[in-house]
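[job 4471] stage=fold_predict status=RUNNING
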Amino acid sequence: MKDPAFGEDAVRALATAESFARGRDYVSGGAVSRLVRRGDRLTAHVEGSDFAPYEVTVDLHQGGVAATRCSCPYDWGGACKHVVAVLLKYLDTPDSVVERPPLDGVLRELDREALAALLTRRAEEDPAFELWIEAELAAGAPDPLSAGPRRTAVDPEPIKRQAEALLSGRTSRRDRWSDNGAAVDEDAFTALIDKAKPFLEAGDGRNALRILEPVTEALVPAWLEQADWDETLHEFFPVLGQMIAEAVLLGGLLPEERDDLMVRLDVWQGMLDEYGLDDHLQVAIDALEQGWDEIGLDDILAGKGRSWPLSGHGDWTTARLTQARLRVLEIGGRTDEFLNLARAAGCHGDHAAMLVRRGCSTDAIAYARKRFRSAEEALQLSRLLKETGQIDAALELAGWGLSLKPEGDRLFGVVGLARWLRDSAAALGRDTVAVTAAGSAFEHSLSLGDFRATEMLAGPGWAELRPHLLACLAAPTYAHDRTEIFLGEGMIDEAVRSVDVENTLRNPANDVLLRLVEAAHASHPDWVIDVAERIAANVMDAGQSGFYELAAQWLEKAALAHDAAGRFEDWITRIDALIEKHRRKHKLRPLLEALRPRA
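[job 4471] inference complete, writing structure tokens
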């Protein structure tokens, strides 16, 4: 097998420093097993805190990581430690990877009867698989060779049964439970909703609704049962509301069908209102009530109006209805009306993108420079220009977009644009543009990954650029990776000053701080003693037995600092006191005794 085309730095950039460190520990502890590669898909099991191992899937693409998935509940940014462990294992020991042919190739070799027998046998063993097959067949996409929508109606019953099964947690490939019940397979539920997209693209709103309605009907009561502890399930409602609105605006419903759907949506929205989910389905209700008959809309579509809505202002649901109308106009090829509505509604990104798709890129760029106010708009248009082969225009527009000042929570949009420009320019050999964009990404994110990316791209110019970036890092009140960057640069004084001790005391597994006290024990012994002993004391006094080994590691650093300060006798007194204090904690006491030097 060929060596992986990406390296450890690429893995480090995918995760937080803590997840990376924990992933490395998992590899060292032999937690990764069943490492299998089928084509561009890598799968593995990782032993974790649950009884059953976590299942990890990594999609590789063009020498890098395209997507990652893990069955653990981690959702705090970046790849989880289990994904990191799998990638590091893949890098460290490529010979341990079992190579197997891609599944689609294996199945294509079977004849029709053998394939049917295989699927039937699996369905008999796994009721969830049977439900999935029924839903897949019921929601079969429109025929791409057909001039019109699908001739047969989608059967909503299998869709509803599959939705109910997914929401109950019965179809999970592993027994995953939260503190309040079975975990919902949200990826599979998303895939079920997405079955409606081909029908929307084909202009078949009726069949799209035959998927979206039963899914919503199953979701509302399921969510109400989990409302008190839900963190993400409610996010499906705006998606469903938007797609239902598009399906309605596509037309084709009989008056009685519209009335029935209106009643159902009103009931569902009323149930959600009781739990504070105001207006999540309102866009679909508005689409039914207003459709294309809203006063003044015809003039806007004909290019006779300057602003939409006519009142001069609109709320969240008004903007969502406009987006649904734009989507339907695009599906129907009504380009002029799309441009008129997008311009009048201030949807400048949509307007410029349509100009590009229409072959008017020069006009799109001029419009963007006049109307765009956010980096997100510039990023979307730059991507589209690149996709259509207009590389120079894409890079130039992205560079201009970085000059737009971020407002409020739009800072992340600037980071995304800068990273895109950095990576795109680097891949094309535009080194000067790539380095400038990399520096901009770091200045706005202050992240370790962006710092290292800039260093790699800058090459010989790094010595000149480095002081400027470090000055940017030191200036703001908060920067998540500041301590780790200073530590990596050997700036121990600055790293020590950057630590918010009171907050870090709460996390005994803080790998960055542990590495810092190791590096600072000789130059800052008093600080190291204070931090290390306080973190260890928090664990020991609370009886957190799962962290006792970590507490011992912290105390080991305190011992090194005592020795460096010439106060080793004080350490002996200190550790004796701790051994006596915690003598009844049978798991902790041997760890403490091991820290006392033998006579």
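[job 4471] summary: The longest strand covers residues 54-61.
[job 4471] exit 0
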